[in-house]
């Protein structure tokens, strides 16, 4: 192994230099595959990648990409083309053309305006919440589902996504039904399979519904084939369909202006006060003068048994006059006063004109009803809300195109809010203008039968009703195609995420990614809507799903704001939880207004989805030690926990006791009470757990494995640094700690280790200034970035500023690294000062060798602790003799070793210098592992002790510099060269990393209130465990408060969340 070759100092040999490539980061080299260097990942992180790829995979992925990279056009769509126009196209739809005039006629201008205002307010408030979500991280391509699930977690994403999917699918059915209604009612009525001539009442209705079913199924099949064959054609036609909508709306406004001074000629015929269907007659009169002769008209023949004047006629027809009224009196006519108030009707009631004289006939039920315009359904306010609401949906169209936008975070809020403002203005003005221009009975005439079978809104349009008829036909057709295009992709995205396992089959598709199976399911659900066949019955169903979807968006935004969750950092600032709460309440109210039973069904469906998708939130397991009286040794751990959680969220506090449960259950109860008292005092919410085990090591392991339940399972472990690990009598203290590090890594849990916990602030302290410094060396899931953000939510740390340092190696471009890190932090929505510290490959200093030598000698002695007394003493003696001999040969002044056998108690061990290790072992003790106890406790056991002390003495004050400070020192170091050659070079490199990093951290962060640092992993082979603790000690030497952090390997903070 070239890295194990002889070390060198100040060598000019280039080849040897290459062998030590990367020695500055040797401490982290074993985990480079799972936690790559920040410098190697920064450019990709800045470019929207949030995968904790290993450096090997990362390089392979880059190489593969370069091999097959094609020139990709950068997304060029801005706010207008990318968000505003698609939203307009989706919001303006079938209801505007086919039902809005009828809603105004039935509800009156006042109530219709209230309906429109409520629905538009609901979507505007939802858009504000959605803007906050959209700017909470980079919006991934894939629209609203990805945006919500990546930002707020899969349970919200799944519930919103499936509601949105079902809403979009039923919207497809509604658009297809609208297309058929326009086709069969206004364009080619003769194309009907089931003829309606001569039919009335239920028969006529059934014939119409059957026509809708047959044609609807055919159109759905054709559309599904178009979507399956080439979705690109649908996207290309989108602008054509949008043009149809815009032209239609402009023609309506043009018609309104023209009607003020030149109303169009659309007469309606009123018999008494009943409105007649203008179909089988040409003149609105009973009799006409032809020459000098009075002749009966076609109208006469509709009500009488013969065309002669002496015919027997319908009584009502006989006693009432026929009058012709203008259907479009125009904006200047003052008709709005008649249309202000509502005219709700029961099914089968004849439309009557207000203010017309009518003589009632003696007959009970009206006869010849097929000649009158009749209400086809019972109407009421809540029904109108359900039918109208789909006309304001479509606000998520912009977010669905997020992948094509130049700046999605800017475009989505602006484009969506502008589109809703525009459409709301059009709808509200349309309500008033329809009421001001059109006769009330014409408004209430759903299918335009009184105006010769014309589309009612078309009668107002200029220059011709056909502009609206053709425009609305193509726009509803296009909207149906787009629903069938969008819905399967949404289902595919949900299926591929695997959050609802039984949907996974719908994640598969064609080789080019087209969602074949999802399209099949979408078409099947769409067919259900078409079999319902009535536009007025399908509209409330999709209203439910969209309202449910919008309610979840508002709820998510309100909850995230109120809970101040760590992943909630939107850049859009014009939102407030009260607005989201109002939006949510409005959605819920509208759901129950539309249809209380549909609302309950929809809520049950969404609730089941939400519960079904299990999501484990961020939970903390705090491991504490208790003393003999079962009191917590370091209560500051819980203060720090409170600061981390900012008083929110659940925490599990656990401790382990040694022994058996039968003998120690009383101590366990006391320990639990002690933990609970401390949790209450420190305001830590959660529960405590005490485990009794034969040894503490296993107890802690059980806590890590079994703590928590379901959604309350911990994903982060907080444990204190074993402070006296050097002085502890046996290896169990630090060995247990290292095993705990290994276990958390294996379980993919994050680990936080506060060092010098006694120096951490209590909850009552306040820092008025200062820095929290993050030393981000390897990328293991972004936990380092999240922790300062969490701490700064608490009043103790609120005034502290965040600084992020990362280390640049010899080959790194530090200027580019700083730029990339700044961009990455911008995407994370984190405000922090950025600094890149250059750490060039310097030669390994003499001090490094000296430290490593002392460490290895200490490790060698530690290994003897498992030997029997005689073996141990022989081994110690041989090491001592060997070391003494070698040191006498080189330089006796540098290191002294002495062996003493003493009877006195080993007291005051903590006062010894840090570089000195004191190993005490009872002469009579068995070699079995004992429980970790502090030296002071252990010292109370009498007996003969073997007391060995390695003391390192170094020329010059070690704090003045890490290398020799005098020429004599350098000469002494070189005298010791043969001693160093036997050292493990891997350890030398690791010590070099620890010293160099400590040097730069001390230089930059000595005055920081808290230093957060990547915690290197323990060695994969257990032989170097003793050295691992020494490396960590050297790495953090001289720092007041240090938090060592190991990520769980999963991303906890991303540009998306």
Automatic annotation (TrEMBL):
Pfam families: AA_permease (PF00324), SLC12 (PF03522). Residues 50-70, 868-944, 952-971 are annotated as: Disordered. Residues 55-69, 868-885 have a biased composition (Basic and acidic residues). It catalyses: K(+)(in) + chloride(in) = K(+)(out) + chloride(out). It is found in: Cell membrane. GO terms for molecular function: potassium:chloride symporter activity. InterPro entries: AA-permease/SLC12A_dom, KCL_cotranspt, SLC12_C, SLC12A_fam. The chain crosses the membrane at residues 78-98, 110-135, 156-177, 214-231, 238-257, 377-397, 417-443, 463-481, 517-535, 541-563, 575-599. Keywords: Cell membrane, Chloride, Glycoprotein, Ion transport, Membrane, Phosphoprotein, Potassium, Potassium transport, Symport, Transmembrane, Transmembrane helix, Transport. GO terms for cellular component: plasma membrane; synapse. Residues 904-917 have a biased composition (Acidic residues). Its main location: membrane. Residues 635-752, 764-898, 989-1057 form the SLC12A transporter C-terminal domain. Residues 925-936 have a biased composition (Low complexity). One of its GO terms (biological process) is chloride ion homeostasis. Residues 83-256, 366-619 form the Amino acid permease/ SLC12A domain. It is a multi-pass membrane protein. Belongs to the SLC12A transporter family. K/Cl co-transporter subfamily. This is Solute carrier family 12 member 5. It comes from Erpetoichthys calabaricus (Rope fish). The gene is slc12a5a.
